[in-house]
Write a structure and sequence with these properties.
The complex is a heterodimer of chains A (279) and B (525). By secondary structure, chain A is α+β, with helices and mostly antiparallel strands. Chain A is built from five helices and ten strands. In chain B, helix 15 runs parallel beside helix 17. Chain B is globular. The chains are: A alpha+beta (279), B mainly alpha (525).
């Protein structure tokens, strides 16, 4: 039932006129993880509930606005109480909410269960970039916005964004294997930041001095973009997240490449104690 | 029975005029007017900041203000609107209307009332003036989360001081309101026969007394962490930034109900008047308002669903938040039942009231969506939240303030306002409000975060629509100012009972209400 409703909603969204660059998307972007799948479904459910209530409530009100006007000759009634109807319209919303609370509870419990992950990445937020530490694979790097500053501009030289992924591109993406449960240990170095990638169903604060976990699993290969979701200073809008889900082989190849790069960088940084000139 | 008393005959011995009159006044009508003018000025100040924000967000890239100034604008816009516009406006209504509605000659503590008002202009000066100090205004968002707010310059201290001053003003005002309502009602006016606006303010005053000290505690801890070596919110010293969030939102959630309960009261006066029918379910309205106030204390965690609370915490706050929809829904149904089979006319106050019921309900829907914790995960700190709170605070609280102003202007000024211009102001406002804020739901659903000065190109179209709407909305309010000033200066003479369906003690005194009213309590049947 939910899948059908989602297909209808998806079709409705995609039949909106799509000009070359214009974007009028009205719904949550396509989910790509088990949790974001459930989130999408829950949102559609509550939306249908709201639509039903909207039709009934606004229908009654607008009917009244038209039919019960003095200019139409309406004479005011005098009733001002009715215990039965009051009980009914207290109980029915209460039951509707109960009906919504049950599936939502299941998703909360699933969201919070980061046990038995396939791998763990420690995420540290900085002003204004992210650092990723793959605890199982020994890969560690910073990830910074890669959109050139001239495109962003300033009050003196106005910005001229020219590329498709303006503000949503980084120099080092968070590469992960497809279909694996990835546990995130999220913290921050300075102020509170938020790691937010909607299509993967994660939005969690990095709080300096504390480590809290979350998890996601990419259903299929792809690139999923997000941004910092908690104001953290002047570059809060300029520290995006790009997650790349790859097949198992591609991921293994990437890990190897990262380790080679890291080893080379460490080699360059090594200073010989024997040679004073290199200090 | 001498129910009213002209100023010229009073026996105080001196008649201050000009500035001195307003500086030393202890008269609830004077103080009410000062609060209302103050809030209107602050509404334009905050509105100007909103227009700069929307101008910058018209297209991707930085054009008008640099990112740090943008953060300052969003922070001070919110603080000015919450503490400078909405809350003082409701206090202005409380001052004018509560004594008139309960048949009292003035507020219980008339001199403290003066002090409550005069604390506000210095506080506002600190807040708005903080743009001019080195480092600019606070840029952490109005929620002032540490450690970011610990990093800020002297403007954060100015903001903290302003919050303390405004808190003191609110607490004193609330003590005044509670004492007046509980002790100075006309004989025969039992609690369950009080006007709804009085009920909503009685409950709001208790909320204020309960939570303003909590905010004071939170910002004082920020101050001592900043300057006196404490580490309440610093993990390195054994503290926790999350604790600030808990304390702040323990204040913050009741605060939003503080900003809407008086609105509910105003609407509960306007709709019965223009439907010419008594309010449906008076007792339920009282109980619903009380339930909302009580529940407001146990839902604060819904502002913190992304903090990493254990599942039990998230679930508790989700259930409690969803529960608040029930009494709120009861109120909406009761207003519609009041309209049902009435004999309605749609003068400007009624237009604002019907728009309130419609648009506040939409804000309620987006609130319900956000209450569902997993859905909040994808919407937290996005423009969906911005859309939600503008629907409940602008087309909720502010529409009730505008409707209430039109409703009671005849009583305050003695003239009917220009109805045609009032209607034009209403339609311009209601339509441009929706153009501004409805698209923001879509931006949030698409994943655009809030408090960012610049955005990815896929968010452009809805941002442009929103910005155009914002400019229409902002400039339309100049018409409101014009209508008010025109009404003060003249117009068709208003009757004591200015509206055919109006009920209540305030409509038994002449328009404009004499300087001193109900010097002896009226008979209330």
């Amino acid at each position: 039932m939910m899948k059908t409703l989602r297909q209808i909603a998806g079709a409705a969204v995609t039949t909106l006129p799509m000009l070359a660059a214009a974007n009028y998307d009205v719904n949550i972007p396509t989910p790509h993880s088990p949790i974001s799948d459930q989130i999408y479904g829950l949102h559609m459910e509550i939306l249908w509930v709201c639509l039903a209530i909207f039709v009934v409530v606004f229908g009654v009100m607008f009917y009244s606005v038209f039919a019960h006007r003095k200019s139409k000759g309406a004479v005011a009634a005098h009733f001002h109480e009715n215990t039965t109807i009051e009980i009914i319209w207290t109980l029915i919303p209460f039951l509707i909410l109960g009906f919504m609370a049950w599936p939502a509870t299941k998703t909360v419990l699933a969201m919070k269960d980061a046990s038995n992950p396939d791998m763990t990445i420690k995420v540290t937020a900085y002003q204004w970039k992210w650092q990723y530490d793959y605890l199982n694979d020994g890969v560690k790097f910073y990830s910074t916005l890669s959109t050139p500053r001239e495109q962003i501009g300033s009050t003196e030289e106005h910005g001229k964004p020219t590329n498709e992924h303006y503000l949503l591109e980084t120099d080092n993406n968070v590469v992960v294997p497809v279909g694996k449960k990835i546990r995130l240990l999220i913290t921050a170095n300075d102020v509170i930041h938020g790691w937010y990638v909607p299509q993967l169903g994660v939005n969690q604060y990095g709080i300096p001095g504390f480590i809290k976990d979350s998890w996601f699993q990419a259903n299929e290969p792809g690139v999923f973009r997000g941004q910092c979701s908690q104001i953290c200073g002047k570059e809060h809008g300029y520290m995006p997240i790009v997650v790349e889900a790859k097949s198992a082989e591609d991921y293994a190849a990437w890990v190897k490449e990262q380790k080679t790069k890291q080893a080379a960088a460490e080699g360059q940084n090594k200073v010989s104690l024997a040679d004073p000139a290199s200090r | 029975m001498e129910a009213t008393h002209d100023h010229a005959h009073d026996d105080h011995g001196h008649h201050p005029t000009g500035l001195a009159r307003y500086f030393f006044t202890t008269n609830h009508k004077d103080i009410g007017s000062m609060y209302l003018w103050f809030s209107l000025i602050m509404f334009f100040v905050g509105g100007f900041m909103a227009l700069v924000i929307r101008a910058e967000l018209f297209q991707p890239g930085i054009q008008i203000v640099n990112p740090d100034v943008f953060n300052q604008l969003t922070t001070i816009h919110a603080l000015v609107m919450i503490f400078g516009a909405v809350m003082p406006a409701f206090v202005g209504f409380a001052n004018w209307q509560i004594p008139l509605m309960v048949g009292a000659s003035d507020m219980a503590f008339a001199r403290m009332n003066n002090w409550s008002f005069w604390l506000m202009p210095p506080a506002a000066t600190l807040l708005v003036g903080s743009f001019l100090v080195p480092g600019g205004a606070a840029g952490s968002g109005w929620t002032l989360y540490p450690p970011l707010s610990i990093q800020g310059g002297i403007s954060v201290d100015m903001t903290i001081l302003a919050v303390h001053i405004m808190g003191a003003s609110s607490i004193m005002g609330s003590i005044n309101i509670v004492t007046t309502i509980l002790n100075m009602r006309a004989p025969g006016m039992t609690l369950m026969r009080m006007p709804m606006f009085v009920w909503t303010w009685l409950i709001t005053a208790y909320l204020l007394i309960a939570v303003m000290p909590v905010l004071a505690g939170a910002v004082t801890m920020l101050l001592t962490d900043r300057h006196f070596g404490t580490h309440f919110f610093n993990a390195a010293g054994g503290g926790d930034p999350t604790m600030f969030m808990h304390i702040f939102w323990f204040f913050g959630h009741p605060e939003v109900y503080i900003m809407i309960l008086p609105a509910f009261g105003i609407i509960s006066h306007i709709i019965p008047t223009f439907a010419r029918k008594p309010l449906f379910g008076y007792a339920s309205m009282v109980y619903a308002t009380s339930s909302i106030a009580l529940l407001s204390f146990i839902v604060w965690g819904h502002h913190m669903f992304t903090v990493g609370m254990p599942a039990a915490g998230n679930l508790f706050f989700m259930y409690a938040t969803m529960l608040i929809a029930v009494p709120t829904g009861v109120k909406v149904f009761n207003w519609i039942a009041t309209m049902w089979k009435g004999s309605m006319t749609f003068e400007t106050p009624m237009l604002f009231a019907v728009a309130f019921v419609s648009l506040f309900t939409i804000g309620g829907f987006s609130g319900l969506v956000l209450a569902i914790t997993p859905v909040d995960i994808t919407l937290h700190n996005t423009y969906y939240v911005v859309a939600h709170f503008h629907y409940v605070l602008f087309s909720g609280a502010i529409f009730s303030i505008m409707g209430g102003a039109y409703y009671w202007l005849p009583k305050w000024t003695g003239h009917m306002y220009d109805e045609k211009l009032g209607k034009i102001h209403f339609w311009l406002t209601a339509i441009s409000f929706n153009i501004t804020f409805f698209p923001q739901h879509f931006l949030g659903l698409a994943g655009m975060p809030r408090r960012i000065p610049d955005y990815a190109p896929q968010f452009t179209e809805f941002n442009q629509i929103s910005s155009v709407g914002a400019f229409l909305l902002g400039f339309s309010q100049l018409l409101f100012l014009y209508v008010i000033i025109k009404c003060i200066r003249g117009g068709v003479k208003a009757e004591a009972k200015s509206w055919e369906g109006a009920e209540g003690l305030e409509w038994t005194v002449p328009s404009p209400a004499p300087y001193h009213t109900f010097e002896t309590p009226p008979a209330f049947h």
